[in-house]
Amino acid sequence: MATQHSRSAARVMMAPAVILLLGWMLIPLTMTLWFSFRRFLPLRGGDLGWIGLENYVRFVTSSSFWPAVQTTLVLVGGVLLITVVLGVLLAMLLDQPMWGQGVVRILIIAPFFVMPTVSALVWKNMFMDPVNGLFAHLWQAFGAEPIVWLSDASLFSIVLIVSWQWLPFATLILLTAIQSLDSEQLEAAEMDGAPPLSRFGFIILPHLSRAITIVILIQTIFLLSIFAEIFVTTGGAFGTRTLTYMIFQRVLESQNVGLGSAGGVYAIILANIVAIFLMRIVGRNLDA
C-alpha cells in the first residue's frame, strides 16, 4: 500500500501539471467574465468602462438569441439521432464476417479524421452544389429539379454534414460494445425461436445502452460548439445561426467583445445544463 510519504511525493510531482491545466482553463474564463461586464469595442474606443449586466440583458433580449438556441438544440438533436441509429446499424453490420472486413472498417472510420473545414467544403462543392454537385446530377437523372441544399434545406444540410463526420466515432464505440456481447446469449435465443427483432430489442439494444449514453454525452459536448461547418457553408444565413455562431458575429463582425463575452457565458451555462442532464442519464445506466 502507498505510504503517506509516497502520496505526498506524488502530489508534489503532479502539482505543476495541475497548476498549468487550471491556469489554461481559468485564465480565459476569468477574462471572459471580466469583459462581459464592460463595454469593450476594440475599433471604436477600446475599453469604455464598467456597465454591469447590460451586455447580458442586451444579448438575451436580442431577437436572434432564442432562435439561435433553438437552432443549436435542433442541430445537436438531429446529429445525435442520425449518428446513434446509423451507428448501431453499421456496428451490427461490421460485426458480421465479410470479405475485406478490415478495409471496410478503416473506410467507415476515416471521415472522423477529416478536418471539419475540409469536410464542409467537399460537401458544399462536390455534393450539394445545385449545378455541378453529385446530388444535382442524381436529381436530373430522375427528371427532378435540383435542390439548392444550402438555402432550401440549410439546417438539414448542416446536420447531414456534421453527422457524416461523427458517425464513425459512434460506430467505433458501438462496435466495441457489440463485440463484448456474449454470443451464447444470441445463440440460445435463436435456438429458442426468438425472431431477429426480438433478439435485437431484448438482448443487443439493452447491452448497447451504456455505449449509446457515452456516445450521446461526448458528442453533445462537442456539437454544442459547432462552428466551422456553418462558417464554410451558409455563413449563419437561412436559419443556421447557432449560439456559437451568434457569439462569433458579436465579437468579430460587430467588434463588441463585451457583448460576445456575455454570449460566451450563456453558452457555458447552456453546455453545463445539458452536461449535467446527460451525466445523470449516464450515471443511471452505468449503475444499472
What does this structure look like?
The protein is mostly helical and 288 residues long. It has a domain of 176 residues: MetI-like fold. It has 13 helices and two strands; from the N terminus they run αββαααααααααααα. A two-stranded antiparallel sheet has the order 1-2. A hairpin with a 4-residue loop joins β1 and β2. α2 packs across α13 and α3 runs parallel beside α8. The protein is globular, with a radius of gyration of 24 Å. It starts with a helix and ends with a helix. The model has no long low-confidence stretch (mean pLDDT 83).
- Rg calc: 24 Å
Strand elements, count: 2
Strand order in the sheet with the most strands: 1-2
CATH first level of the domain at 65-240: which class? Answer: Mainly Alpha
- Helix % is over 70%
Quick summary of this structure?
The chain is mainly alpha-helical and 288 residues long. The protein is built from 13 helices and two strands, in the order αββαααααααααααα. It has a domain at 65-240: MetI-like (MetI-like fold), CATH 1.10.3720.10.
Question: How would the blueprint of this fold be written?
Answer:
Blueprint: H1 4-36, E1 38-41, E2 46-50, H2 54-60, H3 65-94, H4 101-109, H5 116-127, H6 134-141, H7 149-152, H8 154-179, H9 183-191, H10 196-223, H11 228-233, H12 243-253, H13 257-287
Antiparallel strand pairs: 1-2
Helix pairs in contact: 1-13, 2-13, 3-8, 3-10, 3-12, 8-10, 9-10, 10-13, 12-13
